Amino acid sequence: MGGILVLAEHLRGNLSPQTGEVIGLARELKVTVGGPLVVAVIADDPVRYHADLALDGVDEVLAVEAGAHFDPAVYEEAAYRLALAEKPRLVMLGHSVNGMGFGPALAVRLGGSFVSDAFGIESDGGRLLALRGGYGNKVVTKIDITDPCVTTLMLRGGSGKPPPSGSAPLRIVPLDLQPAAAHTAEHKGYVDPPPADVDITRAEFILSVGRGIQDEKNIERFRALAERLGAAFGCSRPIADSGWLPKAHQVGLSGKVAQNCKLYVALGISGAVQHLHGMKHVETIIAINADRNAQIYTVATYGAAIDVFEFADALEREFN
Amino acid sequence: MQTRELFSQFSPFAFGMFYLIVIAAIAAFVAGLARHLLRYRRGRPAGVPVDWRGGLRRMLDDVVTHRTLSRRDPYAGTAHKLIFFGFATLFIGTSTITLEYDIVKPLTGLTFWKGWFYLGFSLVMDIAGLMLIAGLVMMIARRAWFGLAKLDYVRRYRGDTAPLPRATAWKIEDWIFLVTLLLIALSGFLQEAVRLIVERPPLSDLSPAGAALGRLLSGLGLDAAGAAAVRRANWWVHGVLALAFIAGVTWTKGKHMVAAFGSLAVRDSRSVARLPDVAEGEPVGVTRMDDFSWRDLLHFDACTKCGRCHDACPARGSNYPLSPRDVILDLRLLAQAGDSAADPHQVIPPETLWACLGCGACAEICPVGIEQPVKILKMRRALVDRGEMDPTLRGVLETVANVGNSFGEPARKRGAWTRELSFPVKDARREPVEALWFVGDFASFDPRSQTISRLVARLFNAGGLDFGILFDSERTAGNDIRRVGEEGLFEALLSHNGAQMAQSSFDWIVTTDPHSLNTLRNEYGGAVRDRKVLHYTNVLADWLESGRLKVTKPLGKRVTYHDPCHLGRLNKEYDAPRRVLRAIGCELVEMPRSRDNSFCCGAGGGRIWTPDPPGVEKPSHGRMHEAAALENIDIFVTCCPKDLTMFEDARKASGHEGDFLVADIAELVAEAVELRAIPASYLPELANRIAESPAEKVIARGVPELVQALAGQSGRLLAAPPAPPAEGSTTPAPHPRTADAEPSVAGGWSVVPVAPALIADYDRPARTGVRVLVAVKHVGKLGDEFRFRPDGLDVMPEDLDHQLNEFDETAIEAALQLVEGLGAGEVVAVTIGPEEAEPSLRKALAKGAHRGVRVWSEAASPADPIAVAALLAGVALQEAADLVLTGVQSSDFANGATAAALGGVLGWSHAAVVVEMQWDGRGRLDITRELEGGVRHRQSRRARGVWWSGRGPRGPRCPARRVRREAGGSPGGEAAGGATGGGAPGRRVAAMDRPPAGQASMLEGSAAEVAARIAAIVRERKGG
């Protein structure tokens, strides 16, 4: 009883990078909350993930045999049964699309407290506080999770560092998942996004546009600017959602992380946290947004609160 | 007695033939007329009051004076007068003959067309004939040699270089019309001439023209026998031509002669200032030809293609894709095709409709009273209803709907411009005032216009006016919102502003904004309750002339003045600003186009909110060139905030920066009366106000730290209070599914599942099909400046602006599509929140939801997804819903959890970030959810569930706010009373704080300077 239960996430045979991050943060919390740190994986062939999940700090890897594809009812039931058995103090999972699909439902069944999209845990005197945003991330909210016997935590991407490899024993846990049968999802297939001519994860120089460019008709001129500068053309989520650019151009939490980028120019991007996740690590960030208070300036190296179109024209002239 | 024999030497057959032709001609005329009248009857009622008696009198006056034709084109006015009066006289003449020959003589045997009457008659007829010919020759010359661009019908503003085929047909018709009339007149004289040659009556029948022509022909060798032959033949030529002309009037261009009388009689001179309402039961916009009113249909026929509107239009003049004449003509063609269901949008593209500035120049100059802007507006209403508009415009409408102004500023900041004044401005909501100053958006928020507002306030103060403003209770008056076609939003604004005014006490209204003035005076009706709405120039003119404000330093400058469209042309107020300029000692040089002919700055009709089409020179630039041509003007004077903004920009952008200044009239007055800077006696008050503001900031920062320190001693201090049962409810106390469960001491680990809330007194209507619930949230949005509450747990409520969660809009849209696809069903919007949340519920209804439900429990915080889920579950069970849809997250707290939690509480299926959903209503539901990186996962699920929409490819469709009367279902629906919690422990906020501040190095300067520095950085980083 006590300790931390981490629920792993995977897609088509690959473990999600977020799982490693969650384990990393859980490892740090072992100090305050106490052990053991147990990681559970639910899949048709869960044993294959053993090695990747046996990271430093993990005390045990639990394998549950179930369907090959994510099914919220199955994950919820499995996690619930595991929680009843392990009686953890914290249940942690990633705040991802799959996570959102079952985490809150699990929290409802467990009772206790629930914090989603948390990016940190603080221990303050005798209290345990979960940190998340508020009002469009203009404030930081600290939620008190000291009291209940179990807390379900969903962690924002990029909030933890995966620990180095370690070793942990594997235990196969047979579970009766019959109660979930009534709500089982029938898997119909995956649809990959169309191949794109841009690879954000490899690009070293990226020029991205956001809502500040106002109209789909303006995409071409910014694409031309990016080409002229020799930059890959990226965008923020609203642009991809509206169909102005294919999803492959999207930089951010639900898009791509610009892992190899050294120089990032953000035009008309406000800097929502999800977008920052994809680029805030970049060495040199230049942000142009007419709103002086835009969040993007919290991570940018250089900024200018001027009109994006005037800037684009002027920059083009510089490179003529 | 001298007279003329009619039908001399006519065989009975010829006689009979003639009368047959006459009857046929008249029948054709009447048939044509009837055809048009029947078509008008298929149109909708007028929509504006029609004063027949007054209108007829005015029409006769217009016709007799020909003032509408002579305006700004004396040549055409004169020519038309000659033609009209010539033709009319000749027509009366023939009718007089008919009167005697066919009616009076057969019935009574009396004759009067003889003797001196006959001679006088003949003289008058000759003069009339000459007038007619003279006018026709003038018009022919104009058409052939004056090279007027508007008469070739080429649509240059669309980039055409040649006329369209139908335009060529029009030109041919125009020429045929002129030439036929000329031939009729000439053949008439020829007839007279040969008769005079043959009959040689005494005094040549006092017909000098005919006689002269006769002498000419005789001189050329025409003898009596020849003349008789010509006479017989020409008689028929003249008769048939004339009768054919009359028969053809109602079938050709000539119909304008009849329709123009009608349209002048029903003319509404305030058509652009006071737009038509949408009547009960009428469609919001025009999507069929018979959605137009009968007046509109009449107007289409009255158009003479003269092109005055085409010339006057500032949009057309700047090469925007709009010509008012072409709009009317294209609509006319469609109307005449006869299909009442035809859609006018097929012939008028949206960019034409959106190009209109609403300035009214076309309606003002139209000689027959066609109200072009009204037709454009009616079609715009249909576009807005369908959501087809520029995304920027859509954004502005959303902003106005949310915060009541087009600047996107929180309402709270509306009165901020008054803070720099040295005296307090009265709050008209709290104290009675003499004059209510309705400030308007630009004057409240635009920095340049704010300085003018302050000046005007100081002028009012110097003149001792008792005035006040509505501060943050004022919303935009809605003049331009209405002109854009968003009638529903306009009504909401009117209703709000009206309520504010009703609660205040004032005698009259003053404003610096002509747009607000126009709508308050003309369109607000009872809300303004017969009180005068004055422009500040009226007030200043009176004060300067009476000495209430003394001019101590006459300016002696040479100025020109721009009449704002909404003050001048639309409300006929031209004099007050000129009186002001005179009183302050300025030499006024009138713009070439001034007063009713003033040239719009280009901001009206919603165009200040939409980007310009490529390749146009803005109307404001053209105006600057016009002013510069006046030479040695010191100042270009405006008295409208939009004019000031447009012309300040245009002056620089059009290259006239060195030629003259642009200034508001208030600035000139302030200089002339030497308005003092802050007098010393005001200082203490000012100092107090400055000192007050830091104090608040200190409190807000200090307390969270203090509170945290306290809290460290006892974790319980900040717990939410336990949920009290709903007041007045008769449900038993909830099962003690212990909220604050036993803390995890002594090794006890237990689960405390959350159950659905129990809701008292829920009134649920019967089902009509599928019932889809959409959970919507009234979210708070923070501006840049905000403060924390003293307890440090949240921000100050006043610093939040509220709106409907944008992600929920997608959900509403998806629900509506689902229900529409299934054919029957109901979409019920549900929100968990206090009464303050109702506006969002109303917005959901305006977007198409059929019913709205609000549930609230004091213990629940809308930020706690579990508590909200428990309450939503209660509603879903009571409603026996089939599905629940929600947005993927809320824009304020982005928990992204409510829906899955709801699914968990209910025990239903659920899925997140669903981008596609298909359901036939019975079987399983096929969904596609979008994962990270864009991979999509397709699943088939049990239908009864909670589905959260990811943002679809094109973002939510934005239907216009439905006109209030049309919103289905009562707004607000039921507000179910309090609910009792379902075991959720309550979310405990320990503290709220600002995130760590950013550290970007901000570059200052112009775009060029910044770009240069950035380019250097880019080169360095890339090269390295």
Indicate the topology.
The complex is a heterodimer of chains A (320) and B (1024).
Chain A: E1 4-7, E2 10-11, E3 14-15, H1 17-33, E4 37-43, H2 50-53, E5 60-65, H3 72-86, E6 90-94, H4 97-110, E7 113-118, E8 120-124, E9 127-134, E10 139-144, E11 151-155, E12 170-172, E13 186-191, E14 205-209, H5 219-229, E15 232-235, H6 237-241, E16 263-267, H7 273-279, E17 284-288, E18 302-304, H8 308-318
Parallel strand pairs in A: 1-4, 1-6, 4-5, 5-12, 6-11, 7-11, 14-15, 14-16, 16-17, 17-18
Antiparallel strand pairs in A: 2-3, 8-9, 9-10
Chain B: H1 12-41, H2 52-65, H3 67-70, H4 74-108, H5 115-145, H6 165-199, H7 208-219, H8 224-249, H9 255-265, H10 294-302, H11 308-312, H12 314-317, H13 324-336, H14 350-354, H15 361-365, H16 372-386, H17 391-403, E1 426-427, E2 435-437, H18 441-445, H19 447-462, E3 467-469, H20 479-484, H21 487-502, E4 508-511, H22 514-522, E5 533-535, H23 536-546, E6 558-561, H24 575-583, E7 587-588, H25 619-628, E8 635-638, H26 641-653, E9 661-664, H27 665-672, H28 683-711, E10 758-759, E11 770-775, E12 778-782, E13 800-804, H29 806-822, E14 825-832, H30 838-846, E15 851-856, H31 865-879, E16 883-887, H32 898-906, E17 909-919, E18 925-930, E19 936-941, E20 945-949, E21 974-980, E22 989-993, E23 1001-1002, H33 1007-1023
Parallel strand pairs in B: 1-3, 2-3, 2-4, 4-5, 6-7, 6-8, 8-9, 11-14, 11-16, 14-15, 15-21, 16-20, 17-20
Antiparallel strand pairs in B: 10-21, 12-13, 17-18, 18-19
Structure description:
- The complex is a heterodimer of chains A (320) and B (1024).
- Chain A is α/β, with parallel strands linked by helices and 320 residues long.
- Chain A is built from 8 helices and 18 strands.
- In chain A, the strands form 4 sheets. A 7-stranded parallel beta sheet of chain A has the order 7-11-6-1-4-5-12, sandwiched between helices.
- In chain A, helix 2 links the parallel strand 4 and strand 5 (60-65).
- In chain A, helix 3 packs across helix 4 (97-110).
- The model of chain A has no long low-confidence stretch (mean pLDDT 88).
- With 1024 residues, chain B is an alpha/beta fold.
- Chain B has 33 helices and 23 strands.
- Chain B has a 10-stranded mixed beta sheet, with helices on both faces.
- In chain B, strand 6 (558-561), helix 24 (575-583) and strand 7 form a beta-alpha-beta unit.
- Chain B starts with 11 loop residues before the first helix and ends with a helix.
- Strand 18 of chain A pairs parallel with strand 23 of chain B.
